[in-house]
Amino acid sequence: MKFSVVVFPGSNSDYDAFYATSRVLGEDAALVWHKDTDLQGADVVILPGGFAHGDYLRTGAIARFSPIMSAVKAFADRGGPVLGICNGFQVLLEAGLLPGAMVRNDRIKFVSRVVAVRVEQTDTPFTVACASKQVLNLPIAHGEGNYYADPAELAELEANRQVVFRYSSAAGEVSSAHNPNGSLNSIAGICNRQRNVVGLMPHPERASEAALGSADGLVVLASAVKSLASLSFSRN
Amino acid sequence: MAPVVIDTAVLERHGIKPDEYDRILQLMGREPNLLELGLFSVMWSEHCSYKSSRVHLKTLPTAGPRVVQGPGENAGAVDIGDGLCVVFKIESHNHPSFIEPYQGAATGVGGIIRDIFTMGARPIALLNALRFGSLDTALARRIFEGVVAGVGGYGNSIGIPTVGGEIVFDEIYAGNPLVNVLCLGISRIDGIVKGAAKGAGNPVFYVGAKTGRDGIHGATMASAEFDEKSAEKRPAVQVGDPFMEKLLMEACLEVMKTGAVLGIQDMGAAGLSCATSEMGSRGGLGMSIDVMHVPQRETGMTPYEIMLSESQERMLLVVEKGREHEVEAVFDKWDLHAVQVGEVTEGSRLKIHERGVLVADVPNRALTDEAPVYRRPMQEPSWQKAVQKLSLSDLGSAPPAQSAFDRLVAVPTIASKRWAYRQYDHSVGTNTIAQPGMSAAVVRVKETKRGLAVSVDGNGRFCYLDPHRGAMLAVAEAARNVACAGGEPIGGTNNLNFGNPERPEIMWQLGEAVRGIGDACRALGIPITGGNVSLYNETEGQAIFPTPVLGVVGLLDDASKTTTRIFKRSGAVVVMLGDNLGEIGGSEYLATLHGKVLGVPPALDLAREASLQKLIVGLIRDGAVESAHDCSEGGLAVALAECTFDSGGIGVTADIALCGDKPFLSAEAPGAKVEGLSGDWRTNATLFGESASRILVSASDEKLPAVIAAAKAAGIPAIVIGKTGGDRIRVTVDGKAAIDSLVADAEKAWATAIEQKMTGRAPL
Amino acid sequence: MRARVYVTLKPSVFDPQGRVVADALVTLGYQDVKDVRQGKFFEVELDGADAATANLSADLSAEAQRAQVEALRAKVETRVTEMADKLLANPVIESYRVEVLP
Amino acid sequence: MRARVYVTLKPSVFDPQGRVVADALVTLGYQDVKDVRQGKFFEVELDGADAATANLSADLSAEAQRAQVEALRAKVETRVTEMADKLLANPVIESYRVEVLP
Ligand SMILES: Nc1ncnc2c1ncn2[C@@H]1O[C@H](COP(=O)(O)OP(=O)(O)O)[C@@H](O)[C@H]1O
Ligand SMILES: [Mg+2]
Question: Which CATH number characterizes residue D25's domain?
């Protein structure tokens, strides 16, 4: 199966996602330039972390106009699994593929550390291999990961079980003490209504080998492989 | 260019001394015009020419079996096997960071990254060594806050992890903070590209940000002392653009793979002047450019401004004639537009044109190799001997060990730097094996089993008390930290931060420090492959402590074998390798508890240090030890506590033998005897003295005999001092209770001290 | 011709930067600071628009000239509003205001 | 009472963000965008100042009232200018403008 990782100017975790899917997971992977219009036969699309266009203006704001984004949109509309990690999540928000927006971390500063994240939903292509309420140790590294949606939107997200990951304690309890950036409802990641597009701020690809301190993130990428068997969508 | 009378005022504005001007006249064979004078001014500045330090730097050991590239290029390179080399260098941005902390630090990071990818290497790690005034002052807090944000702002965006560093707080740096940044990259040995012009007739390309009027005379500013007037002559500070640099980095690495690039150099200090003259003189050729082709951000720029601008994120390339389109195509892909600005020429002259009219014509070696070299007078400071005298009876009574310990773990220089490094992305790139907070950073080398351990260290207090020994100690500490992660030291880089070299005492400090670095590097087998010199670090005539910062890179054949300072489990035996001599001269203990910087720094036996490092590297490789930690600031007691921090609360019980009462009588430090070392003083010297060449390890009962045997074979004392376990740090000295703290309490004080100073409140 | 686009977070969205600035001001001794909101603005310079004005001014009555300028301003305003809608502001969290400079 | 502080990079200082926004606008088809400079602003709300105005208005002539308000505005302006100097703007690379809101 094939992961296509989109490279925006300023992406900096593109190769990390490529490495984790190809070298660690052993699947096919390709880096796709943002000016291309073809996803190279992707089974799964990853929008990686980084600072697309410097994150000048707003995170993800300029990247959503890249030519490749029409293909990503079409792929998502057909039910193809799309994962946005960190900056990739921000791009998905700006592109309207996921609801809500990001504002500056509540304590302003860039936050780089390992956090515990609780898996809330296991019926998305990126969590099917997780146990319900499984807690993953994943690095975060962002200045704007403070998730916002207006009250009605937020209520809808919760009602539709679209909150996929929440910041938690190591034991899995969710509270403001374990919320690193002020995200509403401790949201670390969400999915769209169709559940095939997922975005999260933590970096599963950076936690895919024990040598790096945690291999907890691999289950997110492995989920995609597992889910693909049961998913049916057209690639073109 | 309009003729300008070059009078003393003009020369002064350009920082050119009368005898230097005579030399210019001689080299030129005529009077220079203003543009030419500008070129000499920036190229002969201390920052670019190393005119005061060069004679000393020449004495450093630079050769070794692994050295691929020594000093003289944009960065040094050392062979790490498999056809690969590690490319690294350290660079300072002290003065700009004082004027504008965020941008000063950010552009410092940008500058050193360019030095690395210019060589054809992909940067994979950043470290920094920072010095600030006391965090009890608003000024130091503001500078610290800005510098940390700037370091993070640039590195995070470009996606190179900041994996380690060190931060020291001392009022001596209040008006002159230090920001030294080390970058390290990986390249194939045969992929190294140099900053030399090749082949007359080959086109010269400019790529990157447009040239503006920023930082004109920045290089000369970095070489001038601060005084009240400098507030007025503040040059425009450059604003870093990490996004542009990211594009440049990716594009340059891609374009170098085509083989069409024959030479490349970044435009840093002295901008286009430096890049054109250095590339020409390194290649033994000339260069001819027309400033009309240089992309400009502002209108009406003169050739003088264009040549001297220090706009960031720009590169100059020599391209093989006929292959221009290959280069242009790569840059176009990245939305960067490379433009030809000139060509390589026969001869050795730098010719600058403005719309075809020749406006400057200088032999390029006159700007580079033939810059003045000074053998400046050196004189040991009159106060040097006095500050080496340490009489404890003058300091009153010693505090109880427990209260000294409580103070020390929370003093910002010793406390956890997590407030800072949590603002640095240290996991991007998926190579980081030992994160910030460990003794050395460890990154793996993808596609191999290898790893690189890196550490930056320096102790200004030691160097103030004895620059020669202090510099040796800095080398030893950096190498020891690397060894404690399992890395065999293979190369070093250094940043010399000193005051005004025109003062003989400062020059003496510099000369002594360089001699110390050389002595230690020769003994430890560490070639110096590059570095940086930052002089005139003074405010209102007050120089900083002489502060050489050493960056040492070590190689692990198997990155998975690395270890950290942290105790891994209860029930392990704790062993001290080395001697506990109780040397408190220049210690953090004396500074924090008694407000004194006095005495001689700890003695250093280089042969023993080398054996110790070999020993620890072997023990780690063989899996004989579970943790390893160097003893430095705060001594044995603080080092023991640090082994318990981040372990999840694993405590330790240890008994330490009282140090001797004449520990200062080593042959190397005659006259350094401390008077009054008895009672509490002796207990505190035992616990908080900073004797060199000591490592704390933990090992299983089964491995203990092997550890002892290996130490014996190496001629290093190995003393079992205690056992891990429980939830307290309990230390006795000769059986007498000295320290007894809950790990959780000590760790909280240590982990949150800086955050509390910065926010004025207890952290969440 | 130049226009400014002022972008602010909607009142319902918490503004952490404003909060931090307000706290810092209070710490500095400005106890009467009740609240700070931080926004950003873009000064957009458009080509050609000036030239258009210049061209017209010669052979028209003052009134007609004014009308022309007004029409031009209106055009610029529409255009810049479009830019704000599309790119400069994120409608989920931000609101904006366009001001054409004289 | 409220005041706004507009902060911009000095004209001589390069504004990378503005350049990227300008490039993005051109790519989006706004070919006539020549330049964009990005700035920020702070809306500072001060306590007490309003109360002061309210107190005075009752038993004073319209003119005296106006004078009082003017004095208050002047005071706010001085105070906020001080804040801008000290904290809101970085004098090395930025310049600022203070506007007291009615
Ligand atoms: N400026 C910094 N940047 C990143 N990490 C830092 C910085 N300063 C300190 N650290 C981390 O904190 C660790 C402890 O620092 P230090 O007290 O100097 O330790 P050591 O005694 O091992 O030299 C460093 O080794 C480093 O990993
Ligand atoms: Mg250290």
Answer: 3.30.1280.10
The rounded Å distance from CA B474 to ligand 2 centre is 9
pLDDT digits (tens, 9 = 90+) for B449-485: 999 999 999 999 999 999 999 999 999 999 999 999 9
Kindly identify the ligand whose nearest atom is closest to the C-alpha of B417. 1
Does residue B750 contact residue B419 with C-beta atoms inside 8 Å?
no
Confidence at residue B7, expressed as pLDDT on a 0 to 100 scale = 84
The total number of structural domains in chain D stands at 1
Give the CATH number, domain containing residue A60.
3.40.50.880
Contact D44 C38 (CB under 8 A): no
Query: CA of B545: how far to CAs of A142, A148, B536, B632, in Å?
Result: 36, 49, 12, 18
Under DSSP, the state recorded for B239 is: P
Q: Indicate if ligand 1 lies below 6 Å from the C-beta of B412.
A: no
Rounded to whole angstroms, the Cα distance separating A139 from A112 reads 7
Q: Residue B247: CB within 6 Å of ligand 1?
A: no
Q: Is A158 assigned a catalytic role?
A: no
Q: For residues B73-78, give the mean pLDDT.
A: 95
Q: Does A215 touch chain B (CB under 8 A)?
A: no
pLDDT at C81: 96
Burial B537-557 (b: 16+ CB within 10 A, else e): bbbeeebbbbbbbbbbbbbbe
D31 interfacial to chain B (CB closer than 8 Å): no
How far apart are the CA of C87 and the centre of ligand 1, in A? 42
A205 is an active site residue: yes
Residue D42: strand pairing partners? C38, D5
pLDDT, averaged across chain B: 92
Which residue positions in chain A have pLDDT lower than 50?
234-236
- Residue D59 structural domain: 2-100
Tokens 């994962």 belong to residue: A83
ipTM of this complex? 0.91
Chain A contact for C17 (CB, 8 A cutoff)? yes
Mean pLDDT, to the nearest integer, of B196-207?
Answer: 95
Hey, which chains touch C, using 3+ CB pairs under 8 Å? A, D
**Residues C57-67, mean pLDDT to the nearest whole number:** 77
* Separation in Å, CA B86 to CA B122, B186, B443: 10, 5, 12
Q: How confident is the model over B207-237, as pLDDT tens digits? A: 999 998 877 765 454 455 544 444 334 445 7
- The H or E element containing residue A217 is none
Instruction: Determine which residue's CA is closest to atom 16 belonging to ligand 1.
Output: B166
- Locate A66 and state its tokens: 């890249």
Q: Which domain holds residue A16?
A: 2-228
Q: What is the pLDDT of residues B250-277, one digit of tens each?
A: 999 999 999 999 999 999 888 999 999 9
* Domains of chain A: total: 1
